[in-house]
Amino acid sequence: MRRSSNSIAACAVAATVLAAGAAKAPSPAWSRTAPSLYAAGSEFAIPRPGVLLLHDAPGSERVLARVGPRTAFGSPPRLAVVGESGDWLAVISAKLGNRVRGFVLRSDVQLVQVPFSVEVDQSSRRLTVWRNGIGLRRIDVAVGAPSTPTPQGRFAITDKLSNFWPSLYGCCAIVLSGRQTRPTPAWSGGDRLAIHAGEGIGAAVTNGCLRASTGDMRFLMQVLPLGTQVVVHP
After folding, report:
1. Residues in Cβ contact with 34 at an 8 Å cutoff, skipping those fewer than 6 apart
2. Using one digit for the tens of pLDDT, what is the confidence trace for 35-87?
3. Which among 208, 210, 150, 154 has a CA at the least distance from the CA of 28?
Protein backbone atom coordinates (compact mmCIF):
# COMPACT_ATOMS: atom_id res chain seq x y z
CA MET A 1 0.00 0.00 0.00
CA ARG A 2 1.07 3.58 -0.56
CA ARG A 3 1.54 6.15 2.17
CA SER A 4 1.01 9.78 1.13
CA SER A 5 3.48 10.32 -1.74
CA ASN A 6 5.10 6.96 -1.07
CA SER A 7 3.27 3.66 -1.35
CA ILE A 8 0.47 1.29 0.27
CA ALA A 9 0.88 -2.02 -1.61
CA ALA A 10 -1.63 -3.52 -4.06
CA CYS A 11 -1.61 -5.33 -1.11
CA ALA A 12 0.89 -4.05 1.17
CA VAL A 13 0.97 -0.64 3.03
CA ALA A 14 4.28 1.21 3.64
CA ALA A 15 5.16 1.46 7.32
CA THR A 16 7.47 1.48 10.28
CA VAL A 17 10.32 -0.98 10.54
CA LEU A 18 10.15 -3.86 13.01
CA ALA A 19 12.42 -3.44 16.00
CA ALA A 20 15.62 -5.34 15.27
CA GLY A 21 15.86 -8.83 16.72
CA ALA A 22 12.30 -8.89 18.09
CA ALA A 23 11.35 -12.40 19.18
CA LYS A 24 7.94 -13.94 19.50
CA ALA A 25 6.53 -13.01 22.90
CA PRO A 26 5.62 -15.77 25.36
CA SER A 27 2.00 -16.84 25.52
CA PRO A 28 -0.06 -14.69 27.90
CA ALA A 29 -1.87 -16.29 30.82
CA TRP A 30 -5.18 -15.61 29.11
CA SER A 31 -5.77 -15.53 25.38
CA ARG A 32 -9.09 -15.24 23.55
CA THR A 33 -9.69 -17.91 20.91
CA ALA A 34 -11.10 -17.05 17.49
CA PRO A 35 -14.60 -18.46 18.24
CA SER A 36 -14.82 -16.46 21.45
CA LEU A 37 -13.60 -13.39 19.56
CA TYR A 38 -16.44 -13.75 17.05
CA ALA A 39 -18.91 -14.15 19.92
CA ALA A 40 -17.71 -11.30 22.14
CA GLY A 41 -16.21 -8.81 19.70
CA SER A 42 -12.87 -7.00 19.81
CA GLU A 43 -11.13 -5.30 22.70
CA PHE A 44 -8.53 -2.63 22.04
CA ALA A 45 -6.28 -0.34 24.04
CA ILE A 46 -6.05 3.43 23.59
CA PRO A 47 -2.66 4.72 24.76
CA ARG A 48 -2.70 7.51 27.31
CA PRO A 49 -0.91 10.75 26.29
CA GLY A 50 2.79 10.30 25.62
CA VAL A 51 4.80 7.47 24.10
CA LEU A 52 3.62 3.94 24.87
CA LEU A 53 6.34 1.29 25.27
CA LEU A 54 5.77 -2.20 23.88
CA HIS A 55 7.70 -4.72 26.00
CA ASP A 56 8.72 -8.20 24.91
CA ALA A 57 7.16 -9.92 27.93
CA PRO A 58 5.17 -9.11 31.07
CA GLY A 59 7.45 -7.27 33.51
CA SER A 60 10.35 -7.16 31.05
CA GLU A 61 12.48 -4.05 30.64
CA ARG A 62 13.25 -4.91 27.02
CA VAL A 63 11.33 -2.61 24.67
CA LEU A 64 10.38 -3.88 21.21
CA ALA A 65 8.86 -0.65 19.90
CA ARG A 66 7.40 2.71 20.85
CA VAL A 67 3.91 3.88 19.90
CA GLY A 68 3.39 7.59 19.30
CA PRO A 69 0.21 9.66 18.95
CA ARG A 70 -0.40 8.75 15.28
CA THR A 71 0.00 5.74 13.01
CA ALA A 72 2.05 5.81 9.79
CA PHE A 73 -1.15 6.90 8.00
CA GLY A 74 -2.15 9.54 10.55
CA SER A 75 -4.79 7.72 12.61
CA PRO A 76 -4.92 7.59 16.41
CA PRO A 77 -3.42 4.26 17.56
CA ARG A 78 -5.78 1.50 18.62
CA LEU A 79 -3.98 -1.64 19.81
CA ALA A 80 -6.00 -4.86 19.69
CA VAL A 81 -5.81 -6.81 22.95
CA VAL A 82 -5.30 -10.56 22.50
CA GLY A 83 -4.41 -11.67 26.05
CA GLU A 84 -3.44 -10.63 29.54
CA SER A 85 -1.08 -11.66 32.31
CA GLY A 86 -1.57 -9.93 35.63
CA ASP A 87 -1.23 -6.18 35.10
CA TRP A 88 0.04 -6.69 31.55
CA LEU A 89 -1.87 -6.85 28.27
CA ALA A 90 -0.70 -8.60 25.09
CA VAL A 91 -1.40 -6.37 22.10
CA ILE A 92 -1.14 -6.37 18.31
CA SER A 93 0.85 -3.54 16.76
CA ALA A 94 1.88 -2.71 13.19
CA LYS A 95 5.32 -1.93 14.60
CA LEU A 96 5.86 -5.64 15.28
CA GLY A 97 5.95 -8.78 13.15
CA ASN A 98 2.79 -10.67 12.20
CA ARG A 99 2.99 -13.10 15.11
CA VAL A 100 4.93 -10.95 17.55
CA ARG A 101 2.98 -9.48 20.47
CA GLY A 102 3.93 -6.51 22.56
CA PHE A 103 3.07 -6.18 26.25
CA VAL A 104 1.79 -2.98 27.85
CA LEU A 105 0.80 -2.09 31.39
CA ARG A 106 -2.95 -1.92 31.86
CA SER A 107 -2.52 1.42 33.67
CA ASP A 108 -0.93 2.97 30.56
CA VAL A 109 -3.99 2.49 28.35
CA GLN A 110 -7.74 2.85 28.27
CA LEU A 111 -9.62 -0.32 27.29
CA VAL A 112 -12.56 -0.28 24.87
CA GLN A 113 -14.79 -3.19 23.83
CA VAL A 114 -16.61 -3.18 20.47
CA PRO A 115 -19.02 -5.89 19.24
CA PHE A 116 -17.29 -6.46 15.89
CA SER A 117 -14.70 -8.89 14.61
CA VAL A 118 -13.78 -10.15 11.14
CA GLU A 119 -13.12 -13.68 9.89
CA VAL A 120 -11.44 -14.36 6.55
CA ASP A 121 -11.74 -17.91 5.21
CA GLN A 122 -9.12 -18.21 2.48
CA SER A 123 -10.35 -21.52 1.09
CA SER A 124 -13.85 -20.14 0.43
CA ARG A 125 -12.52 -16.63 -0.28
CA ARG A 126 -15.14 -15.28 2.05
CA LEU A 127 -14.98 -12.50 4.65
CA THR A 128 -17.50 -12.53 7.49
CA VAL A 129 -18.27 -9.55 9.71
CA TRP A 130 -19.29 -10.83 13.15
CA ARG A 131 -21.29 -8.81 15.65
CA ASN A 132 -21.55 -10.50 19.05
CA GLY A 133 -21.71 -13.97 17.51
CA ILE A 134 -24.05 -13.09 14.65
CA GLY A 135 -22.82 -13.06 11.06
CA LEU A 136 -23.71 -9.51 10.09
CA ARG A 137 -22.48 -9.74 6.50
CA ARG A 138 -20.61 -12.23 4.32
CA ILE A 139 -18.47 -10.80 1.56
CA ASP A 140 -16.73 -12.50 -1.36
CA VAL A 141 -13.12 -11.35 -1.64
CA ALA A 142 -10.00 -11.82 -3.74
CA VAL A 143 -7.01 -13.23 -1.86
CA GLY A 144 -3.28 -13.49 -2.46
CA ALA A 145 -1.96 -15.35 -5.48
CA PRO A 146 -0.06 -18.63 -4.89
CA SER A 147 3.29 -16.82 -5.19
CA THR A 148 2.19 -13.96 -2.91
CA PRO A 149 -0.32 -15.54 -0.49
CA THR A 150 -2.28 -13.58 2.06
CA PRO A 151 -0.56 -14.21 5.43
CA GLN A 152 -2.58 -16.13 8.00
CA GLY A 153 -2.97 -15.09 11.61
CA ARG A 154 -4.62 -12.45 13.75
CA PHE A 155 -4.38 -8.80 12.77
CA ALA A 156 -6.13 -5.53 13.59
CA ILE A 157 -7.48 -2.55 11.69
CA THR A 158 -5.11 0.39 12.08
CA ASP A 159 -6.41 2.90 9.52
CA LYS A 160 -9.37 3.60 7.24
CA LEU A 161 -8.48 5.58 4.11
CA SER A 162 -10.89 7.12 1.59
CA ASN A 163 -9.89 8.12 -1.96
CA PHE A 164 -6.33 7.09 -1.24
CA TRP A 165 -4.55 6.32 -4.51
CA PRO A 166 -7.90 5.35 -6.10
CA SER A 167 -6.17 4.06 -9.22
CA LEU A 168 -4.76 1.26 -7.03
CA TYR A 169 -7.20 0.93 -4.14
CA GLY A 170 -10.51 2.21 -5.49
CA CYS A 171 -12.86 4.07 -3.18
CA CYS A 172 -11.22 3.07 0.04
CA ALA A 173 -8.76 0.94 1.91
CA ILE A 174 -8.79 -0.60 5.38
CA VAL A 175 -5.19 -0.93 6.53
CA LEU A 176 -4.26 -3.92 8.69
CA SER A 177 -1.44 -4.36 11.17
CA GLY A 178 -0.06 -7.33 9.22
CA ARG A 179 2.71 -7.47 6.63
CA GLN A 180 3.27 -9.43 3.45
CA THR A 181 6.16 -11.80 4.11
CA ARG A 182 6.45 -12.90 0.47
CA PRO A 183 6.20 -9.64 -1.53
CA THR A 184 6.20 -9.43 -5.30
CA PRO A 185 9.77 -9.06 -6.61
CA ALA A 186 10.66 -5.44 -7.43
CA TRP A 187 7.49 -4.15 -5.73
CA SER A 188 8.31 -0.82 -4.10
CA GLY A 189 4.96 -0.15 -2.45
CA GLY A 190 5.73 -1.41 1.03
CA ASP A 191 4.65 -4.58 2.81
CA ARG A 192 1.56 -3.66 4.85
CA LEU A 193 -1.64 -5.60 4.24
CA ALA A 194 -5.01 -4.06 3.55
CA ILE A 195 -8.58 -4.75 2.49
CA HIS A 196 -9.44 -2.51 -0.43
CA ALA A 197 -11.72 -2.14 -3.44
CA GLY A 198 -10.72 -3.85 -6.65
CA GLU A 199 -11.26 -6.57 -9.21
CA GLY A 200 -10.76 -10.33 -9.25
CA ILE A 201 -13.32 -11.01 -6.52
CA GLY A 202 -13.41 -14.71 -5.66
CA ALA A 203 -9.98 -15.44 -7.13
CA ALA A 204 -6.43 -15.81 -5.77
CA VAL A 205 -4.83 -12.96 -7.70
CA THR A 206 -3.54 -10.25 -5.35
CA ASN A 207 -0.12 -9.37 -3.96
CA GLY A 208 -1.39 -10.41 -0.52
CA CYS A 209 -4.16 -7.95 0.26
CA LEU A 210 -7.86 -8.71 0.21
CA ARG A 211 -10.06 -7.07 -2.43
CA ALA A 212 -13.79 -6.51 -2.16
CA SER A 213 -16.43 -4.73 -4.24
CA THR A 214 -16.91 -1.00 -3.84
CA GLY A 215 -20.29 -1.51 -2.18
CA ASP A 216 -18.89 -3.98 0.32
CA MET A 217 -15.91 -1.73 1.05
CA ARG A 218 -18.18 1.20 1.83
CA PHE A 219 -20.08 -1.04 4.27
CA LEU A 220 -16.86 -2.15 5.99
CA MET A 221 -15.62 1.45 6.20
CA GLN A 222 -18.86 2.54 7.85
CA VAL A 223 -19.28 -0.34 10.29
CA LEU A 224 -15.83 -1.45 11.48
CA PRO A 225 -13.97 0.76 13.99
CA LEU A 226 -10.21 1.03 14.30
CA GLY A 227 -8.88 -1.74 16.53
CA THR A 228 -11.28 -4.37 15.18
CA GLN A 229 -9.54 -7.76 15.06
CA VAL A 230 -9.26 -9.69 11.79
CA VAL A 231 -8.55 -13.44 11.77
CA VAL A 232 -7.27 -14.97 8.50
CA HIS A 233 -7.31 -18.76 8.35
CA PRO A 234 -6.98 -21.44 5.64
Report:
1. 119, 154, 231, 233
2. 899 999 999 999 999 999 999 999 999 999 999 999 999 999 999 999 999 99
3. 154
